[in-house]
Amino acid sequence: MTYPRFPLRINVGFLIHQSVGTNRDFTFDFPLIQLGADFELTTFQGTAHISRTQQGLLVESEFSGFVALECVRCLEIYPQPLSTHFSELYSFRHRRNAPTDLFVPDDGYIDLTPLVRDYLILELPIKPICRPDCRGLCMYCGTNLNLATCEHQMQVMLDG
Asked: Less crowded by CB within 10 Å, the N or C end of the chain?
């Protein structure tokens, strides 16, 4: 069960005392989700497959959505698709030398928000481009060359 204030918080307490190999799938589908103060996605979807292991709870997840980015060529805002797949182990606290910094919380609720946010941010392009054939802006007058041809571009075409 998820809570609107914590949309990626899930109750895994029932898995803690189950036998090794027990698993459960959790699905997420939100038209709009805020992952931190500065990271908003639309058409957000995902699944989390959580399995009880000897060491703890293994979370295998796939998430996708769209984030609004500014194209580095034409400076227009466009929806950039993002998707990620990750596996993380939430260790039981009583285990020494745990292979991870993630631990199964005492209250039995795991909030996937920090992990999903981090993994999706890693998928952000360094130079976002709205489309492969984006023509950018005229370097003289700033006209968006995807929408119109300015006098400077006409001159380049005539000279070329």
From this structure: C
